[in-house]
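PROTEIN DATA CARD
Card holder: Ribonuclease HI
Chain length: 132
Origin: Novosphingobium fluoreni
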Amino acid sequence: MSISSPAKRAILYFDGGCRPNPGPLQTAVVCGEQAWIQADLGEGDNTDAEWLALLHAARLAAASGARDVLFLGDSALVIAQASGRQRARTPRLLRYVAQFHDTAREFDRVVLRHVRRSKNLAGIALARGTWP
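Structure generated from the sequence above:
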């Protein structure tokens, strides 16, 4: 993973999807010029896929030793829930939020930002990657 020093900054794009919805889940994370695509993550809906993508991005950032992390995704719901601006109401979503916050404790600074789908490098990688 490409991380800038001295503050060990990481910028990660994340996206998830399933076809059909609900259906088989896939995720993509892009950092620098590298993309990580996961397939065969079970069945779920688009919200599950987006959350799994953010969790994957957070794990990658933590494993790289990043301290200042910017997560960019096109799911306004996931960004709002992960940042605490919108309450997650179901047990499934509450588990995702808790997992994200557990991982985010490893960072000094976390920023979550919504980007348009056309600007989400992970979404572009996912569309070009492993979809059948």
